[in-house]
Model the fold of this input.
Amino acid sequence: MLREHNLKVTPQRLGILSILEDTGHISIEELFTFIRKDFSSISIATLYKNINFMLEVNILKEVKIPNSKSKYEISKDEHSHMVCRKCQKLEDITLCLDGVIEHASEKSGYSFDENALVLSGVCPQCQLA
Ligand SMILES: [Zn+2]
Ligand SMILES: [Zn+2]
Done:
């Protein structure tokens, strides 16, 4: 993936990607904790630099969660997110938003090119608890 984007393949970048592959979505702080296990000398500044770099070339995506810290994921097909208010779990969900976007455009005259939808509520497990 890094090579496809003409990015230098560094062990740290590979480390970051493999953590993201395992976790799905992760905050910088969580990522920092994980990456330090393999690269004990990495600084948070270096981690930010690597993340920003991979965001710029679209290998990674930032998931902005209302009232919470952003999480990062490996770019894939467009999808929306669900976040559980109780356990803070973040999950993917694929929804067809075509009609919604169209409707919003008609109503507002905006031309939309980004639809980062995050639905928040209580997940099935927490509803049982
Ligand atoms: Zn939950
Ligand atoms: Zn996602």
Residues 62 and 72 are 5 Å apart (CA to CA). The chain has a mean pLDDT of 92. The domain at 80-128 is CATH 3.30.1490.190 (Dna Ligase; domain 1).
